[in-house]
Design a protein that fits this description.
By secondary structure, the chain is mainly α. Helix content is about 60%, strand content about 5%. The chain has a domain of about 90 residues: Alpha Horseshoe (Serine Threonine Protein Phosphatase 5, Tetratricopeptide repeat).
Length: about 425
């Protein structure tokens, strides 16, 4: 939507400025230096909302300009220099835009329900919103719908139908990546035929988004080829589609996020030699692009490279710096790793209290590894007073999420509690 503003300029050349002195019909003449200042807008077309400041967008948003409402939502969702990240406020603006028929606002809301960010996770609600946005012609909603379908599959479902390519390396130069998409923990209720149709639909939705020029569509098509979702896995094709996303010149905040994911994926392909010749320098180069752009996962992987000496000399101090960058963005694996570094004294002095602090921050996000680590700290009294009941509760949290080894810890601590009664 294009909006018109009336431009009202205060021109002072040598000079006079008129200001109100409190009475409706009285004015005061004030001398100033040479200046020209824009103080209000109207009757001028807004071709590019991205150049407007937060307060300017806010004025338009309260006048029911849905594009301004979506822009405010973007700024609050991702956080900018002008607007601190605030999911609740972002959802509010997206909802206002959606209620007025803006499909981008509707699509944005779908992602919050898909991920359970700022609202209770609700895949049915997310699917409903994405379907509405797709019907309205929103290309990115196809990606959202594909991710809803993917999130509804179990790990066993994916193992049975996905056809990922064989990794080039299985040695120490490879690092395990955090899962991009969560899957359901429930057993599958789909027949083999239904499962195959679902996976094909996931691929087709992503492909359509990419064909329509959606940056996220290019990224997820690369993801589909890397993991063999609905198509035979192919690292080279994954590299190609990730590269398309990474090269985008879009300044849209959502597209910037997709570019960060793509640069991170490219970095990992180079690190592991998948689809390209292994090259740690190029891996770090791509990861730094995303890290410098505020993408926590990239900073975390840079920490992993430095900590484990993957293609570079081990450097615990540098690793800690990268982990802290990601931890400041509340990325749970990084929070956990900072705690691990403090516990072991890698790059820092041993500090059990700090280890507990960071592990708790990660555990509060439901990160199972941190829950197990906290259980261990409470079980043994490192950095906290020994408390077997608290240790047991953390172990049980991890066990409930299916984390391997947590069940054994539950049995062990229960036996200790019984012995000490």
């Amino acid at each position: 939507m294009k909006r018109n503003f009336r431009l009202f300029w205060i021109l002072a050349i040598g000079s006079l400025v008129i200001v109100s002195c409190g009475k409706k019909d009285e004015e005061e003449i004030v001398e100033t230096g040479d200046t020209t200042e824009q103080v209000a807008f109207d009757d001028v077309e807004v071709e590019d909302y991205t150049v407007l400041k937060y307060n300017e967008l806010e004025v338009l948003a309260y006048e029911d300009d849905t594009e301004a409402q979506v822009m405010l939502g973007r700024m609050l969702e991702y956080g900018t220099e002008e607007a601190k990240q605030d999911f609740t406020e972002a959802i509010s603006w997206y909802q206002m835009a959606s209620d007025s028929g803006n499909i981008d606002g509707t699509c944005a809301l779908g992602y919050f329900y898909l991920t359970g960010t700022g609202v209770d996770k609700d895949l049915e609600k997310a699917a409903e919103l994405f379907d509405m946005a797709i019907e309205g012609g929103c290309a990115n909603a196809n990606v959202g719908k594909a991710r809803v379908l993917l999130a509804g599959l179990s790990e066993e479902d994916l193992k049975s139908v996905c056809n990922p390519p064989v990794s080039a390396t299985e040695d120490e130069s490879k690092i395990e990546t955090e899962e991009e998409e969560e899957t359901t923990e429930e057993d599958s209720e789909l027949t083999d035929s239904e499962l195959s149709e679902t996976v094909d639909e996931i691929y087709n939705l992503i492909y359509k988004a990419q064909i329509d020029g959606d940056i996220d569509g290019s990224y997820y098509l690369g993801y589909a080829y890397e993991n063999g979702i609905g198509v035979k896995g192919d690292f080279k094709k994954a590299f190609d589609y990730y590269s398309r996303a990474a090269k985008s010149e879009s300044v849209d905040l959502a597209d910037q996020y997709a570019k960060n994911k793509a640069n991170t994926a490219l970095g990992l392909l180079y690190l592991n030699g998948n689809g390209v010749e292994a090259d740690s320098e190029k891996a770090i180069e791509y990861l730094k692009i995303a890290s410098d752009n505020g993408y926590a996962k990239a900073s975390y992987y840079l920490g992993q490279i430095c900590e484990n000496g993957l293609g570079v000399d081990k450097n615990y101090e540098q690793a800690m710096e990268y982990y802290l960058i990601a931890a400041d963005l509340d990325y749970a694996p990084a929070l956990n790793q900072v705690g691990y570094m403090y516990y072991n004294g890698y790059g820092v002095d041993v500090d059990f209290a700090s280890a507990v602090y960071y592990q708790k921050l990660a555990a509060l996000q439901g990160y199972a590894i941190a829950q197990v680590n906290l259980g261990f700290l409470y079980e043994n009294g490192y950095g906290v007073e020994r408390n077997l009941e608290t240790a047991l509760s953390y172990y049980e949290m991890a066990a409930d999420s299916g984390y391997e080894g947590a069940t054994e810890a539950v049995v062990r601590v229960k036996a200790q509690i019984n012995e000490e009664m």
